[in-house]
Amino acid sequence: MNAVMYGAGNIGRGFIGQLFSQSGYEVIFVDVNAEVVERLNIDHEYPIHIISETGNEDIMVKNVRAVNGRDMESVSAEICQADIMATAVGVNVLPRIAGPIAQGLRRRWEAGIVKPLNIIICENLIDANQYLKQLIAKEMSETERILLDERVGFVEASIGRMVPAMTPDMQKGNILRVYVEPFCELPVDRDGFKGEIPTIINMDPSSPFEYFIKRKLYIHNMGHAITAYLGQIMGYKYIWEAIGDTDICRITHAAMFESARALSLECGMELKVIHNYVEDLIIRFGNKQLGDTVERVGRDLPRKLAPNDRLLGAFSLCIRQGVIPRNISIGIHAAMYFKDSTTPEKMLEIDQQGLKESQITISECIAQYV
Predict the structure, then answer these.
(1) pTM of this prediction?
(2) Domain shared by 162 and 255, yes or no
(3) 3-state secondary structure the chain
């Protein structure tokens, strides 16, 4: 059995690739990092270092190889023969891989393969399944679009495992080494599959899936981002340092509870269950062993301040459900002053309408804690 993993980054190797391998698949990574591709093809395995406050564990992910994402012939050949596929490339990169995927699917159908191909989409984006499908459909003829509807499953996934950016010291001479937290659950959209749902270790097909994808973006990602933005203001380098600050922890905790209350109302999920999820996240954010940095979690600010992304999306969720997002507002304000190598000096292009509708100003929110 073959699994094509589009993206050999930290999530691709440190989460999805691991699950595919442990489920009996040969994992074929597709990536444009020539050094990573070469090393995967030499070693055919790579180490994962699972780290927690209570102890560490090393495992080897075996039966892997790779192709260069710029080699369209090789990429399409692998997609043609794949039994399952996944993406973990980042939302901004999805438009670049739509063409190669379309070519691989076309080659698959020309070879007479009628078995459905399911693509598990591991990206932080609401309706990522529809977005990727539309991108691929633009590369196809009308006849091919019919086959796309019939034979390709676009499956949203909620990626909860935290994987930090790897430093040379962490790699210990092996560019493939990746650090991860113990959490290793993969909720996916049951309704997105075509044909038989594959058996993959730790994969949990659920329906309806709206709750899981919103929980990840509007609680996990939102809380993580607020921790980073407030952390930079307070001069912290690491996420574990920031969440260890009593004031930052209080605001982040309260912001996630605001989103939790709104999500409970919108999706009909028991509030206690979501509260338990929040409490677990606070503990996981404090995992010192991960070494996750404020800069990594906070970067790519224009995307993270997009209307439906983690901050303004959570804000809007609260407004819809009549929950006052005081603490989320503080996080949005802090985000506008975040600086890293990829972000403008100050974010000025931000939709303030949601803030006005709530009749709460940022300064009024902050005044509660000054």
Answers:
(1) 0.85
(2) no
(3) CEEEEECCCHHHHHHHHHHHHHCCCEEEEEECCHHHHHHHHHHCEEEEEEEECCEEEEEEEECEEEEECCCHHHHHHHHHHCCEEEECCCHHHHHHHHHHHHHHHHHHHHCCCCCCEEEEECCCCCCHHHHHHHHHHCCCCHHHHHHHHHHEEEEEECCCCCCCCCCHHHHCCCCCCEEECCCCCEEEEHHHCCCCCCCCCCEEEECCCHHHHHHHHHHHHHHHHHHHHHHHHCCCCEHHHHHCCHHHHHHHHHHHHHHHHHHHHHHCCCHHHHHHHHHHHHHHHCCHHHCCEHHHHHCCHHHHCCCCCHHHHHHHHHHHCCCCCHHHHHHHHHHCCCCCCCCCCCCCCCCCHHHHHCCCCHHHHHHCCC
